[in-house]
Structures are given as C-alpha cells and as structure tokens.
Amino acid sequence: LLQVNDVSGCLDRLIEQLKRTKNFVFIRQYFDVSTEKTALTVRINLLWPEMFSRALTGAELSKEQLKEYSVLTLCNSSPDVIRAVNADGKLSDYISKLPDYLSIASPQVDQLIKAFKLIGVSFCSLLFDVSNTALFKKVYQEGLYNLSFNNIQLMLQCVYGFESKDDICHQNYTLILSNIQSPLHKKVLASMPEYMDIILENCNGRITDTEQTVREILNSDQIAANQKERYIELITPPIERLNAITDKTVWGALIMCEALLVTEENIMDYFLFKKKMEVALVKFINRAQEKLDY
C-alpha cells in the first residue's frame, strides 16, 4: 500500500483501524521489518497525530523506535503536522531530555534544526562523544540547549577547547570572554542574571576571573546588586582601581570584602564619594600592609 497510489483509501482505513484499536503491536512489528517507515510515519501523523504521545506514555514502542519515529516526523512532516504531533508538548519534552538524541547517522541537519526551533526543543544535556558533529555544531550555534553549568562546561571543553575543569569552575566568564563573538557568549549575555546564579553556585567558593572580567560583571546593568555582592565576596585576587567600577552601589561591598587593593587612590576615591570617614573606610585603611603616602 505504501509503494503505490492509495486510490481506494485502503491505507487511510488501515490507519484509522490502528487508531481505533490502539494497535501499537502492528506499528512496532512494522518498524522492525519494513523499509517504508517514512511513508507510514507521514500518514500516521496526518491521521493520528497523538500516536507518538500515546506510544511514549505507554511505552508501546522501543526506545530505538521512538527515536526513529520522532526523527522521521521532524524531517518529513509539515510544520502544521509537527505542531499537531507536539500538541501536548511531549515530543519536544522527549527530545529535550534525551542526551544522545543527536546521535543520528546522516541527519538532515537543516530540517532538524528548523523542527527543533518550531516546537521549542532545548536540550537539558548533551553527549558530545556520540553526537553527529555537524548536528551538534548547529545546535550549539542556534543555542538550542538549556543554560546550565554542565552545558556551559561542555561547550567550553568541546567547542572552545579548554580542558582544565578548575579554570572552568573558577574563571568561567573569563574563558567565555576569550571569544566574544561566540554563540556561547551571546547566549550568556542574553541571560546574565541566570548565568550569574549558575556560576555563583558552581565556583566552589572561589572566583579567579581577570580584573577585566570583574569590571565587565560589576559594571553590567543586567546583574542584580545582590548577585554582584555575592560575586565580590568570592573574587581573588583583589582589583586595583575602585574608580574602574562605574556602578558605585557596589563600592561599599568592595571596601568591606577585601576585594580591593588598599591604595591612596582607592581611599581618596571612596572618601570623596561618601564625603565622610566611615567605619568601613577606617577598617579598609587599617588593612594596609605598607605605609600610605597621601
């Protein structure tokens, strides 16, 4: 039926019968032996778009069959049909949660990416070693993955080429800034508050970003004051010049958290900003290890 023109509508009647009887056994066995899987998938999606969702929920197809059916759906069905198959969000959720989904031989990369974007696929995690290289690269370029520490680490290791887990842990944004034209930097820049929470929770209590990176973060208007203050508590070594930080709301935290070098310039800048000798400034001055010359 799948190899000839279905003038009599026999195929449609067959699929309607499969739908009515919920005959997943036929579909499962057909997928095991047939070479016409694409044609059947297209017709089922047209007449029974919820089949994938029910097969997934009831574990009616094997893991391999579910993945193959989903790939055939994305590559061969129209956008309207793909939306119908994903009406309850289970197709996009299934794909997003499958780390090895990109392990596809000879994938139709452009078509898959269009379909991923159509239904809002965003991978929770990815296995680079088993992924098709071209497809992984495109997913990275399009930012079709969740912003998480593990995914950021994966991109820094597999795309940027950084191997040190310590550097990724303690100098994360410094590494990202090494290529400001990268898709990773653009993705992070678009979600700085979320990114800061991720880094603050995964730096193991210490951040060793370069001073240029520290300035980028503390001068950003996308990052909340409380996030900047938590960041200041963790940075080492201290920054050199207070007036390099244009967001003066964090100057107090810099003075109090030993995140700033004790110099005559920094003392004067803070004093002129506050126009009085605060307790915090006195304590800052008392931390000087060398004689100060005003």
SSE blueprint and pairings:
Elements: H1 10-21, H2 24-33, H3 37-47, H4 51-57, H5 63-76, H6 79-85, H7 90-96, H8 109-119, H9 133-142, H10 149-160, H11 165-170, H12 172-176, H13 183-189, H14 192-202, H15 211-218, H16 225-234, H17 251-256, H18 264-274, H19 279-286
Helix pairs in contact: 3-5, 8-9
General description of the model:
The structure is a single chain. The chain has 294 residues and is an all-alpha fold. Helices cover 59% and strands 0% of the residues. α3 packs across α5. The longest helix is centred in the first third of the chain and has 14 residues. It starts with 9 loop residues before the first helix and ends in an 8-residue tail after the last helix.
| Major sheet details | none
The proportion of residues in beta strands is: under 5%
Give the helix tally: 19
Q: What are the low-pLDDT stretches, counting only 5+ consecutive residues below 50? A: none
Kindly, what is the distance between the CA atoms of the first and last residues, rounded to a whole number of angstroms?
93 Å
Average pLDDT, rounded to a whole number, is 93
Instruction: Give the tally of β-strands.
Output: 0
Q: Output the helix-strand order.
A: HHHHHHHHHHHHHHHHHHH
Helix/strand-derived class? mainly alpha
Helix coverage percent: 55-70%
Q: How would you describe the shape?
A: elongated
